[in-house]
User: Fold this.
Amino acid sequence: MAVNPIQWFPGHMAKTRRVMKECMPQVDIVLEVLDARIPYSSKNPETEALTEQKPRITVLSKSTLADPDITRAWIRYFDGIGAPAVAIDSVGNLGMNTLSDKIREVLTAKTARYIEKGMEGRRLKAMIVGIPNVGKSSLINRLAGAKKAKVEDRPGVTLEKQWVPTSIGLDLLDMPGVLWPKFEDETVGQNLALTGAIRDGILDTEELAMILCDRLRSVCAELFYQRYKLSPALCDDLPPYELFEAVGRKRGFLVSGGEVNTERTATMLLDEFRGGVIGKISLEKPRF
Assistant:
């Protein structure tokens, strides 16, 4: 299936990488927020170098949209490589206590050193990093107990850094979302686009919805076919575009002449996947 390469790296992202390096000496711990549906694709390969090997916790956000069994497999994977992971959903307040406990656990030694130096009660500082629209601001607002960071369901909303105090003795540095200049793996760019980390305005949404249909047929065919009342016998071997059209016909999204309204079908498919309407779906499994 031939598709156009997906890239998106606005100028503010280059600035954010510089600011991360400048602020790192002030930071005690890094909270790396990944999308639980695509932990591999949503992990910036530059993060480790940018954060100078600071203690790091992996935060799997939007976990209520992901397959819970696969999310547990990802937690085991990250725990195994020394980047302890916690699954959360900021909107539903899922996993917040577990995350707070994990932060205290990881920072136990540093807190003890501060006490030894007579700095008991010193507020610790955490940097929140992650790609656009992954849930950083929602996480900060939940930990802060108030709406301190601007939240919208689209990438590129946070454009400046900001320190936010919390009730758990931790100040959070909210950084704008950062991608990387070039996606070496075409599937990574596609996954980022499918989950909304890249602005829809720079993409062909019909092509993206076609990719989504093909991906859903691969990773969760039963959920996909059930949602759109498709016959496996008829759809298993359809080319991606014809599968996409089959969804539009089943929904009755037709224009004069009986042709499928592809724009309407594409918008519906992307909205329903991103909103979890089709089901709890993970597009990636750990690469053990």
